[in-house]
Design brief:
The complex is a heterodimer of chains A (304) and B (244).
Chain A lengths: L5 E3 L2 E3 L3 E3 L8 H4 L28 E3 L4 E3 L8 H15 L4 E5 L4 H12 L4 E7 L9 H6 L1 H12 L6 E4 L7 H10 L4 E4 L3 E3 L2 E2 L4 E2 L6 E4 L4 H12 L6 E4 L5 H10 L3 E4 L2 H4 L3 H15 L15
Parallel strand pairs in A: 3-15, 6-7, 7-8, 8-9, 9-14, 14-15
Antiparallel strand pairs in A: 1-2, 4-5, 5-13, 10-13, 11-12
Chain B lengths: L1 E12 L4 E7 L11 E5 L7 E4 L2 E2 L3 E7 L3 H7 L6 E8 L12 E6 L3 H13 L5 E6 L8 H6 L5 E4 L6 E2 L12 E5 L2 H10 L3 E5 L15 E4 L2 E4 L6 E3 L8
Parallel strand pairs in B: 8-9, 8-12, 9-10, 10-11, 12-13
Antiparallel strand pairs in B: 1-2, 1-7, 2-6, 3-4, 3-7, 5-6, 13-16, 14-15
Classes of the chains: A alpha/beta (304), B alpha/beta (244).
Chain lengths: 304, 244
């Protein structure tokens, strides 16, 4: 077992680096550039019951050391994901993959998770209750501890795979949401999804994004993400997947010191398609620099 | 797709509106005209996509307009500046279906990506007819370059200060076997509706990644959602659903 090895909800990862949902498609674009089997795993594009086109264009805007997106959960729907995308994915990636699921009702979460539960290559279900781009559904589940717990219970009832609840940072008390998910049976917590933001086009005097608001990601959000991982680590006993602006091997170590068992890399993949591979390649050097033998020894290490 | 470090060879104004950027570095990632490069501009997070104009193995050029902070910063970069660039992105134009008498219609910056296509057609023994449209005489771009290829473009200017007064569609009464267009979307639509022939249209979009990962630039087509960056930027005329 290597020095980068970690265990996430009972499934072994060769290293803790996981490209985040929505920044890695189903892996093929990246597999053209490098062997993606070097990844711990990756979380594929958020999946809903029915196909979704997503929001109108423009969906993307520059942030400040970051970016805004309002893609709106574009995906072909769970049946097409299982029929078309997973077989192709298995051609380029042979490890357990993380299935990211979104929904607009408890029924939808249950149906999508039940279908993905039957797929052998799915190692974990990452349940997004935090997408800020969809009107009326996704946001409210993730901002209310009671509803977050209900989604967790609903999903746990239909799957034997580990369930990781992905939280929104657009709340006043992240720890309360995480606690509620843990009490409802969640096997892990991942955070943070994007922070809601917007930009205005000075020439048009209108919002840049057709959706008006979008989710901010990239290095700008890293300190916020780190703080929330820290707070959730102080609150729950289940593993945490930390994400939000992670762009380097040192960011990975910092996230793990705050309490993350594994770390997702998001926007960085879109700027540098080799970002996740470079981070994995650099991790041993960074461990040497800070006198760390095995990366799993530092999880939560910054807490007193 | 290739990632590489490129060095600015030349970065100059072509006229009051458009600029030419020439970058040195391994440009073998480009395999078709109409593909694009995605440039990391110092000080900005997202890359900026630009259609390739002309390329050899060790350099490529592009035509750009300063439309925001990113392109204004790009304009300030002098010769010798090193840039992180993704090359060979997107599908590009294909000569399949071009027929004997293809017509190339470019508007504004769009004349850049069609220049590479014109060169490729000439290499294949096809002589395209070319229409280049601009708002006014002072913004005419690459005309001498098309002429240097041995072509005789028809130029239109909206204010009538040069060539045919009006829009590119006012000069389209030329018999043609296919139409290739690059320019603002209203122009693409007008060209597509006016031409009875099949053709290919190159689209611009606000992109996140430029290589198909983020779904930021998707547009609806008759074949379902398609990513402008990966499935395009060139689409067959018949694939496009025009928004009202």
């Amino acid at each position: 077992m290597g020095r980068l090895n970690v265990s996430l909800c009972g499934v072994e990862l060769e290293n803790p680096v996981i490209p985040a949902s929505g920044t890695f498609g189903y892996g093929y674009e990246f597999a053209e550039l490098y062997d993606i089997n070097c990844l711990g795993t990756f979380s594929f594009k958020g999946t809903t019951r029915s196909p979704r086109f997503g929001n109108p264009a423009p969906r993307i805007a520059e942030g400040c050391d970051g970016m805004l997106n309002a893609v709106g959960l574009q995906n072909p729907g769970v049946d097409a994901v299982i029929r078309q995308e997973l077989p192709k994915l298995s051609q380029v990636f042979r490890k357990p993959v993380m299935a990211n699921v979104s929904g607009f009702s408890l029924d939808e979460y249950a149906e999508v998770c039940e279908k993905l539960d039957r797929e052998a290559q799915v190692g974990w279900l990452e349940v997004n209750i935090s997408c800020p781009n969809v009107h009326g559904g996704g946001m409210s589940f993730g901002t209310d501890p009671v509803l977050a717990g209900e989604v967790t219970r609903t999903v746990k009832a239909v799957t034997k795979k580990p369930v990781i609840m992905k939280l929104s940072p657009n709340v006043t008390d992240i720890a309360a949401i995480a606690r509620s998910c843990e009490e409802a049976g969640a096997d892990g917590i991942s955070l943070i999804n994007t922070l809601m933001g917007m930009r205005i086009d000075l020439r048009k005097r209108r919002p840049v994004l057709a959706n008006t608001t979008g989710g901010l990601s990239g290095p700008a959000v890293f300190p916020v993400a780190l703080r929330m991982v820290w707070q959730v680590y102080e609150t729950v006993n289940i593993p945490i997947v930390g994400l939000g602006g992670v762009s380097s091997a040192e960011d990975v170590v910092e996230m793990m010191l705050a309490g993350a068992t594994a770390v997702e890399v998001g926007a960085a993949n879109l700027i540098d398609p080799l970002a996740s591979k470079k981070i994995i390649d650099e991790l041993p050097l960074v461990l040497d620099r800070y006198g760390i033998n095995n990366i799993k020894d530092i999880i939560g290490g910054a807490h007193g | 797709m290739r990632q590489g470090i490129f060095t600015v060879r030349e970065n100059r104004a072509l006229n009051a509106r458009y600029n030419l950027l020439a970058l040195e570095g391994d440009s073998t990632g480009f395999t078709a005209p109409g593909q694009f490069a995605d440039i990391l501009v110092p000080g900005f997070y997202l890359r900026r996509p630009f259609a390739v104009c002309d390329w050899e193995d060790d350099f490529f050029t592009l035509v750009y307009e300063c439309v925001g902070n990113g392109t204004r910063r790009l304009k300030t970069l002098g010769a010798g500046t090193e840039l992180d660039v993704l090359t060979g992105l997107g599908n590009g134009y294909t000569l399949e279906g071009a027929g004997e008498s293809p017509l190339l219609v470019g508007g504004g910056c769009g004349v850049g990506s069609l220049y590479g296509l014109a060169k490729q057609m000439l290499r294949q023994g096809l002589t395209p007819r070319v229409i280049l449209g601009f708002p006014r005489r002072e913004e005419i771009t690459l005309l001498e370059d098309y002429i240097a290829l041995g072509l005789s473009p028809t130029v239109t200017t909206a204010d009538g200060s040069f060539g045919v007064r009006g829009l590119v569609t006012d000069a389209m009464d030329i018999p043609h076997s296919s139409v290739y267009a690059c320019g603002p979307e209203p122009m693409l639509r007008a060209v597509a509706l006016m031409s009875p022939a099949g053709g290919q249209l190159s689209f611009d979009a606000r992109m996140g990644c430029g290589f198909g990962a983020c779904m930021g630039c998707t547009r609806q087509t008759v074949n379902g959602p398609r990513r402008v960056c990966k499935d395009g930027p060139v689409f067959r005329k018949e694939e496009i659903l025009w928004e009202d």
